[in-house]
Amino acid sequence: DDDNDNMETVKMLIEMGANLDAQTDDGDTPLHYAGIKGLDQIATELVLAGANPCVQNYEGFIKDDKDVRQYEESRFDHMNRKSNNETEDKWSPAKTPYEFALCFEEFSTTQTILVLRTAEEIYKKHGNVSRKLFYQ
């Protein structure tokens, strides 16, 4: 029932014209949260309503320093391979909702990861995500 309530809330916010790309203090958007919580139906609803799947959070902001960026990428790869059984908090330079969901795959679902990856690829190619392109 919580998922149905969440979907109804999302639909209401969309109808009211809410900013679907609004960011928290960390730069996360509703798509970032849908990604790590495995809410594929909500992610799909947000994307088809116009949410930008390429918005980057602030934690993963690309730095000008090549060495720092290289370190962050290697750390991301290392942490992404860690076992789900470890209790250590994951650090991530994940930027987009897809990268965020991928990094925290123990909280996400394969379906959510696929939704966000597909949406990101379509957005990068076409500048938006239409229902027709999404379901092709």
TrEMBL record:
Entry superkingdom: Eukaryota
Signal peptide: none
PROSITE patterns assigned to the protein according to its UniProt record, in alphabetical order: ANK_REP_REGION, ANK_REPEAT
Keywords: ANK repeat
Repeat positions for ANK: 26-58
Protein name, as recorded: Uncharacterized protein
Organism: Hanusia phi
